[in-house]
Amino acid sequence: MLVLLTSRSALADATLFIGGTTTPSTRTTKGFAFGLGVTIVGVEFEYASTGEDIASGAPHVRTGTGNVYVQTPIDVASMRFYVTTGAGVFRETLGLHQETSLALNTGGGVKISLAGPLKARVDYRVLRLRGAPLYSTLHRVYAGFNVSF
Asked: What's the average model confidence in pLDDT over 71-80?
């Protein structure tokens, strides 16, 4: 009963981001995320698209994942840290090559309070691609704007 009386109501947030995937060469990644959480834990859907680099043999990769996260219950110096893990699907294309299969991810980051519900978000993920991708492990870093509602 005490937990129910003192817990915050569920909060939603949305993030638009841009960054880079560094495997096998650095390419631009763009995407969005939408999450729903209660104080410490939450769930999030994320879509990301990484451009191809034909010269280095780096494929175009699109991912759609569902994630769970655990975050600090309060802001620490206007920052809220989190760790996340999840699964979903990916599609990789390069020339005539195409692969669609399971994607697993693990990572973490920080949401930095800017003004009111607006935050900056910085995130690092390691993606493990199943099936027969050209590169089975991808590293991705991004920054974006996050708004809570």
From this structure: 95
